[in-house]
Amino acid sequence: MIKKKFFLNSTILLVILLLAVLIYHCKNPKIESEYLSPAALAIHSNGEQFVGSETCMECHADIYASHMQTAHLNTSSPGNAESIKGSFEKGSNILDLESVAFKMLPKDGSFYQHTEIKNRLLEKPPARFDIVIGSGVRGQSYLTWEEDKLFQLQASYYTPTNSWVNSPGFPSYSLDRPIRDACIKCHVTFVKNKDFSGQGNTYEKSQFIYGVDCERCHRPAKKHVVFHRNNPSELKAQFMIKYDTLSRQQRLDACAQCHSGPRDRILQGNSFSFLVGNNLNEYARNFYKGNQNTPLDVHGNQYGLLTKSECFKQTKTMDCATCHNPHKNERGETGSFNQKCIACHTESVICTGESDKIQQMGNNCIACHMPTTPSKSMTVQLASDSLETSFNIRTHLIAIYRNDN
Ligand code: HEC
Ligand code: HEC
Ligand code: HEC
Ligand code: HEC
Ligand code: HEC
Ligand code: HEC
Ligand code: HEC
C-alpha cells in the first residue's frame, strides 16, 4: 500500500516536472537554440564568428577563471568606477598643463574630462571616459566616443605616481586624437572599423570585443562551441586550432602580433586580418626608421629581443610559452621564472658570474640577465614643468650585462 502510494506520488511528481519543462521550453524556445548556437559578438572579415569567453566557461572552467585575472583580459574595458584608476576626488582630479587645464568630474554614474583653455573663451564640451586602455600595471589611457567616432582623451593615468598625466606623445595644448586600428589593435580582441583599411576612426560600436580574450589567441570559435555543445560526448577538440601542431614560428607569431613593435606597414587586409596559424610577416611588418641596426627598444618588442638572445638562437623549441603560462597572471612570480632558467642551464651552461654574488641574490637569474630597462619610446610628462619620465620594462635580450653588476 505504502509502496503503491509512493509510486503514484512519484509518477505525479514526474508528470508535473515534465510538464514544467515542456511549458518552459515552449515559452523559451530561444534559450535552448541560443545555447546550441550562441549569437556572434562580431564577425571577422574571413567570415569566422566570435562568441566571447563566457561561452568557454562551462567546458574550460579553470582556464576561464585564471584568464579573468590576467592583464590581457583587463587591458581594455568600459569606463566605470572600478576600471578607471585615476582619481575624481577634489584636489587630485586636475591635470594642469601650459595653456590648458583638465578637470575630471563624475556625473550620474559616468565620468567626464572637462577642458579649460586658458586665456580664451573657447568652450569644449565635456568628454566621457567611455573606454579604459591598460590594466593599470604602469598606467592607463582613456578613449571617448563622439557618435561612432573614437578619440583619445588627453588625460592619462600614471600608476607609479598615482596621478593624472599628459597622454604619451600629446603636446601641452588641447588636442583631439582620432583612434584608429593601428592604436587599438593590441588592446582589444576585435573591433570593426567602418573603413576596411582601418585608417578612419568610425567604428561599428556593436562589434567591439574588449580585452585580449581567448579568441584572439585561439581564433574566432563559434564552430567549436556549437559542435561541442551539440556533441557533449566528443572528447577530442573539433574546429579549434591546435598549438601543439603549430610550427615554432606560428607559435611565436601568436604573441608577436602584439609583442614585436607596431607593425604598422600593412601588407594584406587590415590590422585585424592576421589570425593565429597565419604567417605574420605576410600581413604586417615594422617600418624601419633609418638604420636597420638601430638598437631595438624595450617597449613592446619582446619578440625582437628574445629572438636575438643566445638562449633562443641555440635551442630549437624555445618560444614565449617556455617561460609564460598565457592563461595566468604571473606578475611578480620571479621564483618560477628563475626555475625556467635553471631547468635549462644546469645541463647546458652554468653561470660563470661570481658565485658569492649569485648566492646573495638568491639565484635571481633575471635580475642580472634580463634587467628592467627604461623604454625610449614609452615616456610620459608628469606635469607642465617636469621632464619626461620613462616606463621601465623587463628586457627580453637575455645576455651578460657587466655594467649592471
Ligand atoms: C561544450 C564544451 C566546449 C565549449 C563550450 C568550448 N570548448 Fe574548447 N574544447 C572542448 C573539448 C571537449 C575539447 C577537447 C578536450 C580538451 O582539450 O579539453 C576542447 C579543447 C579546446 C582547446 C585545445 C585544442 C587542442 O587540442 O590543442 C582549445 C584551445 C579550446 N578548446 C578553446 C575553446 C575556446 C576559446 C572556447 C570558447 C570560445 C571553447 N573552447 C569552448 C569543449 C568545449
Ligand atoms: C592582441 C594583442 C596581444 C596578444 C595576441 C598577446 N599579448 Fe601579451 N599583452 C598585450 C598587451 C596590450 C599587454 C599589456 C596589458 C596591460 O597591462 O594592460 C600584454 C601583456 C603581456 C604580459 C605582461 C602581463 C602582466 O601581468 O603585466 C605578458 C607576460 C604577455 N603579454 C605575454 C604574451 C604571450 C606569451 C602571448 C602569446 C601567447 C601574448 N602576450 C599575446 C597584448 C597582447
Ligand atoms: C603593437 C601593439 C601595441 C599597440 C599598437 C599599442 N600598444 Fe599599448 N601596450 C602594448 C603592450 C605589449 C603593452 C605592455 C607593455 C610592454 O610590453 O611594452 C602596452 C602597454 C600600454 C599601456 C600601459 C598598460 C598597463 O597596464 O600598464 C597603455 C596605457 C597603453 N599601452 C596604451 C596604448 C595606446 C593609447 C595605444 C595607441 C595610441 C597603444 N597602447 C598602442 C602593445 C601595444
Ligand atoms: C594570450 C593568448 C591566449 C589567451 C588569451 C588564451 N589562450 Fe589558451 N592557449 C594559448 C597558448 C599559447 C596555448 C598553448 C600553450 C602551450 O603549448 O604550452 C594555449 C592552450 C590552451 C588550451 C589547451 C592546453 C591546456 O592548457 O589545456 C586550452 C583548452 C585553451 N588554451 C583554452 C583557452 C581559453 C578557454 C581561453 C579564454 C578563457 C584562453 N585559452 C585564452 C594562448 C592563449
Ligand atoms: C630552452 C633552454 C633555455 C632556457 C629556458 C634558458 N636558456 Fe639561457 N641559454 C640556452 C642556450 C642553449 C644558450 C647558449 C649556450 C652557449 O652559450 O653555449 C644560452 C645562453 C645563455 C646565456 C649566455 C648569453 C650570451 O650572450 O653569451 C645567458 C646569460 C643565459 N643563457 C641566461 C639565461 C637566463 C637568465 C634564463 C632564464 C630567464 C635562460 N637563460 C633560459 C638555453 C636556455
Ligand atoms: C626565458 C624566459 C622567457 C621567455 C622565453 C619569454 N619571457 Fe617574457 N618575461 C620573462 C620574465 C622573467 C619576465 C619578468 C617577469 C616579472 O618581472 O615578474 C617577463 C616579462 C614579460 C612581459 C612583461 C614585461 C614588463 O616589464 O612588464 C611581457 C609583455 C613578456 N614577458 C612577453 C613575452 C613574449 C611575447 C615572449 C615571446 C616572444 C616572451 N615574453 C618570452 C621571461 C621570458
Ligand atoms: C649577480 C648577477 C648574476 C646572477 C644573479 C646570475 N648571473 Fe649568470 N652571469 C653573470 C655574469 C657577470 C656573467 C659573466 C661571467 C663572465 O664571463 O665573466 C654570467 C654568465 C652566465 C652565463 C654564461 C656562461 C658562459 O660560459 O658563457 C650563463 C648561462 C648564466 N650566467 C646563467 C645564469 C643563470 C641560469 C642564473 C640563475 C641561476 C644566473 N646566471 C644568475 C651574473 C649573474
Question: Can you characterise this structure?
Answer:
Among the domains are: 2-34; 73-211, no CATH class; 296-405, no CATH class. Helices cover 26% and strands 22% of the residues. The protein contains 13 helices and 19 strands. It has helices spanning 2-27, 29-36, 61-67, 181-184, 214-218, 222-230, 248-259, 302-306, 310-313, 320-323, 334-345, 355-360, 365-369, and strands at 42-43, 49-50, 76-78, 94-96, 100-107, 110-117, 127-128, 131-133, 139-146, 149-152, 155-158, 163-166, 177-178, 188-193, 203-210, 265-266, 284-285, 372-381, 388-394. The strands form six sheets. Strands 3, 8, 9, 10, 11, 12 and 13 form a seven-stranded antiparallel beta sheet that branches. It has a four-stranded antiparallel beta sheet with strand order 4-5-6-7, with no helix packed on it. The chain has a two-stranded antiparallel ribbon with strand order 1-2. The protein is globular, with a radius of gyration of 26 Å. The N and C termini lie far apart (89 Å).
Average residue-wise pLDDT:
87
Q: Rg from C-alpha positions?
A: 26 Å
Bound molecules: heme C
Helix content: 25-40%
